[in-house]
Every structure is written in C-alpha cells, then in structure tokens.
Amino acid sequence: MRIALIGYGKMGHEIERVALSRGHSIVCRIDVDNLGDIESEAFRSADVAIEFTAPTQAYNNVLKAFKAGVKVVSGSTGWMEQKRGEMQALCEAGRNTLFWSSNFSLGVALFSLTSKYLARLMNGYPMYDVSMSETHHVHKLDAPSGTAITLAEGIIENIDRKNSWTKGLLTAADGIVSGRKECPADCVRVDSVREGEVPGVHTIVYDSPCDEIIITHSAKDRSGLALGAVLAAEYTCNHSGFLTMGDLLGIR
C-alpha cells in the first residue's frame, strides 16, 4: 500500500516506522515546510493519506486530499464536532472516503466499549454521579481531548440522567488552573491536565456517598496509536465512505 503522511512530527514518524515494518511504502511526507506538496503527483499516487495535524489545519487537509482523489485516515481532534455532518455528506455513496477516530488505540476502543457497558449498568443507580478526567502532553492544543469527548458522548447515550458534557477544570502546563468544578446535574464534567510528555490518560469515576468506581486507560507511548492508524489505512484502502473504529473492529 502506498501511504502519504500529512503531518510529520513525532506521530508521523512513528506511523512511518510501523507502516514500513508492515511492508508499506511512504510516497509523500507533508509538513509545515512543504504544504504545497499535497497537490503533487506523489501525493495523488497514494492509496491512503494518514493525517495527524492541528485542529485548525485538519479540515482543509481533508478537503485537499478529497480533491486529489485520495482516501484519508485522520486522527486530528478538535474539529470533527463541528464538521461531522459535512464530512458524512461528502463521503455519502462512496464519493469520498474518510476514516476518522479521536483515538486509534485498540485498547481505547475496548475501553470505550467497557465504559458504555458500565454506563448502561449505572443507569439504574442514580446515587452514582459520573465525571471524567484526561491528561496529555503539553503540546496538545485541544481540551478536553477528542477521546474524552467521545467517551463522554458514549456515557450520555447510556445514562438517562445525563444530557451533555461540559468542560471542568483545566490544569495548564505552567500549573495554572482555570475553569470550574461545579456543573449542572445533567452534565458529565470533563477535567483536563497538560503536563510533560504524557501520551494520554483517561479516567472515568462513578462516585456515591458510600464508594466510588474508577476505570482508567493509560497509553504507554505512541506505538499503539500508530499501529491502529496503519490498520485503519489498510482497512480504508479496500472500503469507502465515512468510516470509524467500529467499522474496523466490527463492534459498536
């Protein structure tokens, strides 16, 4: 499979390592110093482009890839909440293909299923309130993380007393804390921490006057995300439309 990389930072380099180890080739690498190469013949020759950039860049990157006739796997977060409907419409009937996920870790996908199942159980026990926290490296621009938002949405779908999520406390890299801990009873509060080079920790807490239940997923490094992204590209190469981790894993 011929892969184009859009974004060639730490994540792009790790994806390249995994892709090469699985016998694929990298035909184009696009970063801040050669953005125009997305219109190159090398880019158009790719079977799939894997895109990991910033929220402000991802939308236009995907549109340019579609224009070039290249399928896209995107792991950029902080933009899909506003553009999901448009992306689904652009991919309708296989006219374009986008595989998007807030997190490509297979462990996170399983963690998400576990969270949804636990939420269904907790729907009948209103004495437990639920909140979340996520911790990421200082370079991450969006807060809460896209993964935290996806997890929160899964909880809301399965607990009748919760209708939305809300930003809670944000602890910045310099230690300054902003936001607020208080939130409406029908909301899931999501706290965020930015520190060091943490690849990602997501924790869900069900708290009652008597006890609490805590589940956590902790990424050890970027390798799991990179492997998931390459697996998604392999799947995308032979499928079309708006795709997700549920399609790749055959689970919902």
What's the arrangement of secondary structure elements?
Layout: E1 2-6, H1 10-21, E2 25-30, H2 41-44, E3 48-51, H3 55-67, E4 71-74, H4 80-90, E5 97-100, H5 106-122, E6 129-136, H6 146-158, E7 164-171, E8 177-179, E9 187-194, E10 201-207, E11 212-218, H7 223-237, E12 241-243, H8 245-249
Parallel strand pairs: 1-2, 1-3, 3-4, 4-5, 5-12, 6-9, 7-9
Antiparallel strand pairs: 6-10, 7-8, 10-11
Helix pairs in contact: 1-7, 5-6
Written as H for each helix and E for each strand, in order along the chain, the element string is EHEHEHEHEHEHEEEEEHEH
Strand line-up across the major sheet = 2-1-3-4-5-12
Mean pLDDT: 95
Judged by helices, strands and strand pairing, the structural class is alpha/beta
Proportion of residues in β-strands: 25-35%
Uncertain spans, ≥5 residues at pLDDT below 50? none
Q: What is the number of helices? A: 8
Overview of the molecule:
The protein is α/β, with parallel strands linked by helices and 252 residues long. Helices cover 36% and strands 27% of the residues. It has eight helices and twelve strands. It has helices at residues 10-21, 41-44, 55-67, 80-90, 106-122, 146-158, 223-237, 245-249, and strands spanning 2-6, 25-30, 48-51, 71-74, 97-100, 129-136, 164-171, 177-179, 187-194, 201-207, 212-218, 241-243. A six-stranded parallel β-sheet has the order 2-1-3-4-5-12, with helices on both faces. Strands 8-7-9-6-10-11 form a six-stranded mixed β-sheet. Helix 1 links the parallel strand 1 and strand 2. Helix 1 crosses helix 7 (223-237) and helix 5 runs parallel beside helix 6. It is globular, with a radius of gyration of 19 Å. The two termini are 27 Å apart. The model has no long low-confidence stretch (mean pLDDT 95).
